[in-house]
Amino acid sequence: MFCFFLYLAALSMLTGTTATSQTFTNSGEMNISSCPITYYGQKYDKVYVAFNASRFAVCFIGVYKPGIKNDCIVMSGGTADRGDLAILSREIPTGSGVHKLLPNLKNAGKCVNIIPLKDSQQSEIEQVELGNFGTQAILAIKTYSGYTHVDVEADAKVNGLTVSKQKFQTAETSKGVITDVSGCRLSGVAYKTNTTVKDPNTCSTVTCDVNGVAGAVSYCGPMERCQGDGRCVLNTICTVTGSTVIDFVGRVRSVPDRCGYTLMRPSSIPGLKVLGVFQERRRKDVSFLDRVILQLDQAGVQISLEQGGRVQLNNKVLMLNATAQVVHGVELSKDQMGVTAKISASNHTVSVLFDGSVTLIHMTGPSGAHMPGLCGNSSRTLSKEKVSEHSAPGCEIHYDDAADSTIDCNATTEWCNLLKQAPFTACSRHIDPEPFTTACTRTLCKYPAVDGLKCQFLEAYARACTRHSNVTVEGWRSKTSCSAFPQDFVTCQDRFCSAHEFCGESNNGAETRCLCRAIFASKYKSTGAFGEPTVCGQKSASVTLAKCLLEDKSIDYSVLHLNDQTCTGEMDNLTHMVMFSFDSSSTCGTVVTANNSQIIYKNTIMTRNSSMFGLINRQIPVHIDFSCFYSQPDVNSLAIKLKHSSVIQQITSGEWSYNLSMKAYTSSDRVQAIQSSNEIQLDEKIWVELKTDGLAEKMVVVVTDSCWATDQPSPSGSLRYDLIIKGCPNPADQTVKVEGNGLGTSNYFSFNTFQFSGKTGDVYLHCRVELCVRQGNTCTPTCSQAERRRRSAMPKYKDENPAFINLAWTY
Ligand SMILES: *[C@@H]1O[C@H](CO)[C@@H](O)[C@H](O)[C@H]1NC(C)=O
Ligand SMILES: *[C@@H]1O[C@H](CO)[C@@H](O)[C@H](O)[C@H]1NC(C)=O
Ligand SMILES: *[C@@H]1O[C@H](CO)[C@@H](O)[C@H](O)[C@H]1NC(C)=O
Ligand SMILES: *[C@@H]1O[C@H](CO)[C@@H](O)[C@H](O)[C@H]1NC(C)=O
Ligand SMILES: *[C@@H]1O[C@H](CO)[C@@H](O)[C@H](O)[C@H]1NC(C)=O
Ligand SMILES: *[C@@H]1O[C@H](CO)[C@@H](O)[C@H](O)[C@H]1NC(C)=O
Ligand SMILES: *[C@@H]1O[C@H](CO)[C@@H](O)[C@H](O)[C@H]1NC(C)=O
Ligand SMILES: *[C@@H]1O[C@H](CO)[C@@H](O)[C@H](O)[C@H]1NC(C)=O
Ligand SMILES: *[C@@H]1O[C@H](CO)[C@@H](O)[C@H](O)[C@H]1NC(C)=O
Ligand SMILES: *[C@@H]1O[C@H](CO)[C@@H](O)[C@H](O)[C@H]1NC(C)=O
Ligand SMILES: *[C@@H]1O[C@H](CO)[C@@H](O)[C@H](O)[C@H]1NC(C)=O
Ligand SMILES: *[C@@H]1O[C@H](CO)[C@@H](O)[C@H](O)[C@H]1NC(C)=O
């Protein structure tokens, strides 16, 4: 030690090759750039020297002031109050005396800053030397006879904190002492060279090597975080954004389909499952997280977090606000950032935040939890994580869509890489941005940056950071022009979309509405249809259109109606399907036409008459025809033997099913039907009514085409007497009167009873009945001469399959 100091001192004195000489009194700032000193890992090329009454301080950042953070060596100064600086360049090879004295010193010496201190009488008090050994440094002190204290103190301070305190007796310092002032620093904390210490603040093992380089290795697991007291606790975040799952340790996985998967099933909270259900939006080949389901097996409940902040508890919608509401042990709340569900058990807390697009699942608690599900390891086999009760049939089918040529993947990548730049760097120490940039580029290179998607990934990263580490990334929104709250969440708030819809932007972001999902829409877009084909019922027809398909073409369903403008579409508020229909009681202006084989019911969905709008309107004219075709009533004659005075026949054929009855009465009011016990006199007037039940009167009427009597059950019996011919009374029989024929679903006729001459026994009355589609009054037979001249003889429409009915009575 003695020798070394003298060696240095001798060099400086003997050679006199000092580069510069700067002097100071009381204090001074000195340029040591020609012999910079690396002090605890930090290289300085200036020193600030200062005395106070008892101390001499050499500082590197500024003039020494007690209590101010600085890197300093504070020494006893004796009575010195002035000094100067000489810098001496000199190679001191490794293995020299000084290296033997200080075994931690590994580098060769390069130069030395020599500071002789004197008092006002210019007598030498003390000499201080700072030697540059590359990334290491030494401090040497020698006292002279003018130094009157019994010892010399030398405190090394880093960042204002004393990292070493040394005291040397003047007996030693008068010969010269030398000490190592090398070290490392990490996050402002100083470490001595060749040391390994545990840092409880960061739960890491810090190693300071001889080159002044410190390294820290955390002893917490990848899902854990240091609690600051040396203990690691579970603190981990899983993010699902779009189709990408960033699991608890940062592995990225894209869910390729539209099924439901287990995101997490923490062993520490038995019975809790967090499930994610994916759905496509604008493209068939990109799926998005659509809903997050918290399944509580023990309580047998399921809480579903959906788009627009909608929350359902077992299919019942819950109204939430910022005040947490506890439902089966789950705290539920809603604010401008989304819906949060929080559940705790066994000191573990799981909080699930969902804003309709992104979910953050944050889990904290004691370390060592086992975590099945995609959040635990996103590389797990998908089929094993699939939840069948939340997976629609065919959800795993893979679709391909043509690439979107408007996407510039280079620009997208540049945008996504913002996550690796300031101000996001404030977070990079806590959460690796790489998985988020990967998720961002994967999605945005394929899917258009609409519906707030562009900001979604930045938002997700900033939020994950705040949740995980309480670090707020400041100013990123202004730098990126992203709005203060998740856009999708705010604009879709409380908007309910049906299963085949999602909430998104339309008109270039000018408005938000429920848009058709791509796979749903593709079924119709290829044919240009707005919905399902016409459903024809027996007496009704309906057309069901999808509201979202209409809106894609800027059609507002509420301005549409049928031929009769009071018949408007009815929207089902769960399915968002709009139904237009008519039936026999409200025909809605349906036009019925017929040819020999078919009856056609036709109506049209059209836009409201323009006179009902104001001065202008933005409705595209709509004209959607829909028709139902029915085959003609196909009724076969049934041979029924009757001995009664009334008969009902049930007739079913094709779409038509009706009852046809024939009853005889003794008075024109047709109240009291003739019973078989009644006695009817010969030449007594009777009224026979032919009546149908179950036909749509507004569309179809009954025409009695002909009635005749035979003496045998067969309508073609050899004896035949005509009462009605071609819908009109037999002109040869003046007793016959026909009433209401072709006007409705019943008609009747009257005649005077008779018997076949020379015959006794049964008389069989047969009628041939036809159905006629109502078109004006064309179903009414024209019986008078005058009428016949005006019109063609019979209804335009002739039933090829008439119904036959007969009534028998005995004399
Ligand atoms: C320190 O000295 C060097 C030359 O030794 C000179 O180049 C440099 O500008 C000086 N720095 C200051 C801050 O005076
Ligand atoms: C001189 O500095 C030392 C070290 O901080 C301090 O303890 C002491 O009080 C100071 N003395 C005077 C007179 O300022
Ligand atoms: C580092 O210090 C240990 C003792 O703490 C010592 O045994 C070892 O030799 C030192 N290593 C070097 C390279 O100086
Ligand atoms: C939040 O909701 C709860 C329960 O529905 C209600 O009691 C409370 O008044 C609401 N708070 C606010 C601020 O609306
Ligand atoms: C939760 O933590 C507290 C305090 O650390 C401990 O006393 C208690 O046993 C823990 N409970 C469970 C269920 O682990
Ligand atoms: C994650 O899951 C995959 C597939 O099952 C497996 O190969 C891998 O080892 C798992 N990784 C971890 C860290 O458990
Ligand atoms: C994207 O970048 C690649 C490589 O940097 C370049 O070859 C390519 O031309 C760029 N494409 C566009 C559209 O700018
Ligand atoms: C997060 O930081 C805020 C202020 O920055 C502080 O008030 C709060 O206590 C911190 N929370 C945690 C959990 O550290
Ligand atoms: C649908 O309408 C019914 C009755 O009008 C109403 O009770 C229900 O809340 C509505 N549902 C939705 C999802 O709007
Ligand atoms: C009746 O109309 C239908 C539908 O227009 C048509 O398909 C059919 O060929 C027509 N039949 C006759 C006989 O004209
Ligand atoms: C529209 O309404 C006006 C007045 O009510 C009527 O004169 C016109 O015929 C209607 N046009 C159509 C196409 O129904
Ligand atoms: C026809 O009559 C039968 C028996 O009285 C009855 O069950 C049925 O509902 C009737 N059908 C129609 C279409 O009125």
From TrEMBL:
Domain named ZP: residues: 535-790
Entry keywords, A to Z: Disulfide bond, Signal
Limits of the VWFD domain: 236-417
Record keyword Cell cycle present: no
InterPro entries membership: VWF/SSPO/ZAN-like_Cys-rich_dom, VWF_type-D, ZP-C, ZP-C_dom, ZP_dom
The keyword Iron-sulfur belongs to this UniProt entry's keyword annotation: no
Signal peptide positions on this chain: 1-19
Domain of life, source organism: Eukaryota
Name recorded for this polypeptide: Alpha-tectorin-like
Organism: Seriola lalandi dorsalis
Lineage of origin: Eukaryota, Metazoa, Chordata, Craniata, Vertebrata
